[in-house]
Amino acid sequence: MADPKLEILVIIGSTREGRYGDKPAHWIAGRIDRHAELTATLVDLRDWPLPFFDQPKSPARVTDGDYGNPLANRWAAKIAAADGFVITAAEYNHGYTAVVKNALDWAFREWNRKPITFVGYGGVGGSRAIEQLRQVAIELEMAPLRHAVHVPRDVYMATMKETAPANPELFAAADASATTMIDHLAWWARALCSARG
Question: What pTM did the predictor assign?
Answer without folding.
Answer: 0.96
